[in-house]
Amino acid sequence: MGKYDAVVVGAGPNGLSAAIELARSGLSVKLVEASHKVGGGATSEALTHPGFVHDVCSAIHPLAAASPFFKSPPLMDHGLRWGYPETALAHPFDDGTAALIQRSTSATAATIPPDGPAYMQLMDPLVDACDAILEDILKPLRIPGNVATLRFGAWAIRSAKGLIQKVFDGERARALFAGTAAHGMLSLERHPTAAFGLVLMMLGHRTGWPIPVGGAQAISDALASHFVALGGTIETDARIDNLSQLPRAEAILFDVTPRQLVRIAGPNLTKHYRKRLERYRYGPGVFKLDWALAEPIPWKAKACRKAGTLHLGGGWEEIARAEQEVGRGRIPEKPFVLVAQQSVFDRSRAPEGKHTGWAYCHVPNGSETDMTEAVETQIERFAPGFRDIIVGRSARNSRALERHNPNYVGGDINGGMQDLGQILFRPFASFDPYRTAIPNLYLCSSSTPPGGGVHGMCGYNAARSVLRSMGR
Ligand SMILES: Cc1cc2nc3c(=O)[nH]c(=O)nc-3n(C[C@H](O)[C@H](O)[C@H](O)COP(=O)(O)OP(=O)(O)OC[C@H]3O[C@@H](n4cnc5c(N)ncnc54)[C@H](O)[C@@H]3O)c2cc1C
Fold this sequence. Notes:
- The protein is α/β, with parallel strands linked by helices.
- About 35% of the residues lie in helices and about 15% in strands.
- It contains 17 helices and 16 strands.
- Helix 1 (about 15-25) links the parallel strand 1 (about 5-10) and strand 2.
- It binds flavin-adenine dinucleotide.
- Flavin-adenine dinucleotide binds near residues 15, 61, 407 and 414.
- Flavin-adenine dinucleotide binds near residues 9, 11, 40, 405 and 406.
């Protein structure tokens, strides 16, 4: 089996990032992955027909493009290229128009009358201080040193509903904000749903919402290739069910969620620590759809055709109702739908003249309800004729997503609920959330700060914790 300085279990974006940070600090590192390939939540496959490249999980990557950690490894040298849709996000309305997030705040402001000036007043200072704010919020909670983060925090801690009612008067800005805040997968009346909206909008203006050319797999392949170039070893098709399967190592890092860690390391954990992990809460699940399409999606609002991502749910009250229903454990009649149309900006995703579509909606954790009809009805509402261009379809409910990747417990794509308590303190309040009750065993997944998304910062922060404990 050999002996390593560190073994990382799970090759998702966080496992890969942890492995890179340890290897480039001079440690011998082995990465062990259950699946036949690396990537976890950042992979691509021909889910419908040969020649169509679909992102199995993540599709849109503002967090990856802005991640302080992803800026340091030479990922471009390992094949990663970003494609930037002209418009990051389009939010269509029933009247055939759309609110847009574009690079400049003034261009966005022009699409959300009468709230353009209020939008710029809110966003401009945040966009100007974006890098400093990210530096603070992508780490475990501490008292922020810079004023911009404190100002961000004062807005971010609110509910989306609270912010919307205080800042915006018109339906368009309210709807645009509600859609971005709904990425938090919480009822929009809950704190801190405003945070999700603010971060995604800020990134829309600072970095854009890019897509990796060739598919999300390109991010994972670039990370893995860099890790191997640093001397790291990767073993795939190797699912770890108990600690005895692992080679000897000074440190073992798990890119898994608390429920899995209890299953794998349970007998070795202290009773107190295990109990705290068992109290960890998971959020709603998602229902995921991918389509092979005969042509681009025929959006009624022409501006939508230039957007990488679309939020479908009309006005803010409809979106709020859908998220509230999911929060109460019920299937929404009109789900809030997130759509991506990668092939419009990356011709490698589909055969000549053909296209791909990617979408998901939120559902109660573990739901097996088939949401295909409800999701396609929402798309048809803003793009009449959509159903006629479908030439292939792949659908996965929450349970199927969990079978695909055990980290998606009940279909929760964020590695645990991101309500106020669990976004500030993951998996629970602790000075070093990456350390566990076993001295050489660490958690490095999105169940640790700063939470869900493809940014690698959980893995990087965990690796720094390991290096600190080794006196490096
Ligand atoms: C449908 C969907 C859409 C999404 N959209 C976006 C998006 O557009 N943008 C974005 O930034 N994020 C998105 N996400 C979220 C993102 O994919 C995750 O937050 C991210 O992948 C978490 O990274 P991670 O490394 O913590 O875990 P994961 O990516 O889940 O990786 C964990 C890895 O560990 C492996 N593993 C688990 N258990 C074991 C075991 N016992 N032994 C060995 N290996 C094991 C798994 O196979 C997996 O490869 C989406 C997720 C889904 C499902």
